[in-house]
Specification:
The chain is mostly helical. The protein has one domain. Helices cover 72% and strands 0% of the residues. It contains 4 helices and no strands. Helix 1 crosses helix 2, helix 2 runs antiparallel to helix 3 and helix 3 runs antiparallel to helix 4. It starts with 17 loop residues before the first helix and ends in a 7-residue tail after the last helix. The N terminus is likely disordered.
């Protein structure tokens, strides 16, 4: 009779199967979205207290809001052990939709409300794409 040795259970091994991997991806994604909201809710009032007119212009306002959200998300990602590169890539994904939409906004073909709404909406798939491109960064 032979005895088969098995490796100790790896807590990350289940992340290689479809269901648990998808749950892990979604949990991590939702954690980042919540951290972004926390950054926006926490830093928004502070920015209005220090510099009330800072966000009077819509183009400046969306960039300041993206910054507040990036700070919250970046802090959470760092706490979770992500690399500075991963944090920079995810932050860039949050700014990219606004950078693209600022062109039609400045051209007068996109209104301030649409700039805000579409920028935030497009930010979500941009973030998911970063996670899909670098799955190892989000495997823990």
């Amino acid at each position: 009779m032979t005895t088969q040795l098995t490796a100790p259970s790896d807590p990350h091994a289940e992340a290689s199967t479809g269901g648990p991997r998808l749950r892990h991806f979604l949990r991590h994604y939702l954690e980042m979205v919540l951290a972004m909201l926390a950054g926006m809710v926490t830093l928004g009032p502070l920015e209005h207290l220090v510099w009330p007119a800072l966000t009077a212009r819509a183009d400046v306002g969306v960039l300041v809001m993206a910054t507040n959200m990036s700070i919250g998300m970046g802090a959470w990602m760092r706490f979770r052990g992500h690399s500075w590169r991963g944090i920079a890539e995810m932050s860039a994904a949050m700014y990219l939709p606004f950078a693209v939409l600022l062109v039609p906004y400045w051209a007068g073909t996109l209104g301030a409300d649409a700039l805000m709404a579409w920028g935030h909406l497009l930010m979500l798939p941009a973030m998911a794409l970063v996670m899909l491109v670098r799955p190892a960064e989000y495997a823990h």
